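To whoever picks this up:

The parser on our side crashed when reading a file containing two proteins. I've narrowed it down to the boundary between the first structure block and the second sequence. Both blocks are reproduced below exactly, byte for byte. First block:
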Amino acid sequence: MADTLSVMETVGSERAVLWGFDATGPLSILFAATYPERTAALLVYASYARGSWAPDYPWSWTDEQWDEYLLKSERRWGQPDYVEEFTKWLAPTARLDQTDLEIWTSFFRATSPGTQIALETMERETDIRHVLPAVHVPALVLHRTGDQVYSVEEGRYLAEHIAGARFVELDGVDHLPWYGDTDAILGEIDRFFGSVLDEEAEFDRLLATVMFTDIVGSTQRASHMGDRAWRQLLATHHHRLRGLLARYRGREVDTAGDGFLATFDGPARAIRCAVTIAQAMRDIGLEVRVGLHTGEIELEGDDVRGIAVHIGARVASLAGPGEVLVSSTVKDLVAGSGLTFADAGEHELKGVPERWHLYRVRE
């Protein structure tokens, strides 16, 4: 698993979709259970949970079957007739000509019999049944009903023990996915990825209170004070505002000139932060306008998007010097908090449907 993490770090991948086929299925499952934060989804095709027979896992080979198979493999590995026999077991429908068999033979001979036996022994001793309940990422398990290498029951077992996993039985007898009806496999994978992306998009949407601030008359003030003095005052403004955001657990999203965009997970805390900001800026000789709105936002990296952000910006633009203006949504959500408001009337917000009722926060 360390190798997988190393590759992901090298290519800059934060989260990956894991494809587990045959003996790599258990490895992919183990990675998904251990590193869910690095796993976007898990796709398992024609794999297994345990490599050898057990009373509660009757589909794998017994010790006698394993011993016979390993002995035959050690004696005949890489021989053309064995290669042909082996590949027909993996893909009964494949029509292999002489060139295909030569390619497969070269492939087999690239691995020594000793290495192959070591790999098969590892598979024989694999048992990840206890790991399956620890997988909590989107998962799809695919298995062909006539697979002769691993029974379709093994695929069903995986899906039944991974929470929320989707199991799809596919027609066919080929163990290798690139033989037989590949379109069926690709179609299921495409549908699965689509559902994962839709789900991810939902995860990236959340309810938040959006706050916009802006210094009133900043251009005229900068012209009157001069560049150096204005920069010093602006630095003080930024320092104080960021300190208050930290105090009220707001998240700074963006800074454009003398304005800030921040989000909060609670409207009451956002209002109290806004009021304190207005007072703190007044103490250094600045008047700010602040607008607040609560709604569903979309996360896009460190940025935020959505109609709620536009509404918050429009509300702020209507606030007067030293004023904190909120939408009716914010006012309704803080009922009983002790905060008081003055009616600011109904307004049309540019680019936003319908008229909106706004309220001034009373300090």
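<<boundary where parser fails>>
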Amino acid sequence: MNCFSIIIPAYDEEKLIGSRIKNLLEPLATNCNEIIIVCNGCTDATAAQARKTINQLANNNVHDCHINVIELGIGSKTNALNHGVNVSKNPISVLLDADIEISSCDCAELVNFMNNNNLLAASPTPKFNYKQANWLNRRFYKIVSSSTYNREHRIANVIALSAEAKAKLFPLPNVIADDAYIQRMIGKNDYKLLNTINYTFNCPRTILAMLKVQSRIVRGNLELKSKYPNLIAPKSKVSKGSAIDRAIFITIKTTAFIIARLELLLNVKKWHKDDSSR
């Protein structure tokens, strides 16, 4: 049995962290014996809420898992991941974004899939939830969700990493696009998406939130291209869609590119988080 650790970087996730912990522990996969929650630069009660939930479940004898809540003063996802990996006791880790709902049993199946196929990394297949978004966002994410990148190459949000992958990747550099860095460093022959497991990616509901997220993605990709020119992104295609959908897609991507360029010019360091879907 391959035991694994789940590492969750959490930045101002007071509203979600309790339910995410419950999702992982009810029920608990037998080979998930460690969960590390790294609260980084939080300005809310993320850590306190996490500890409260853990104590409640422990009192109810719900879980038999070591859960470590760590607080760091620096608001940095890569720093949080580096810290979590450094203190984890298992050779295999699952990196899990705090806003993603998934069970530890699904994480265990992902780990088994990675090991059985001799992979360095694996992720579940994302399902894009844009039903609550406005009309423009829905049209945009309808095309985004059809891309070959998201169907074949999206090593993100939930990432199982082998011991070999962790030795190759960590410590992560201070980059915006941590998921893209991991995916490109590993290489397309050593990762796969598991399509029998899905997780829900809740899309931004407002135009402003969408542009913040998309400009962050572009800024991260531009940074990777500048710092690591040898790391090549996999080619991606999207469905043709209607003329309106294509116009919306191109307009939003162009706007996000312009915003990202300006932010790089102005040396903006802020991590744009989507609060609209929480």
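After patching the parser it read the second block fine. The longest helix spans residues 243-265. The chain is about 45% helix and 20% strand.
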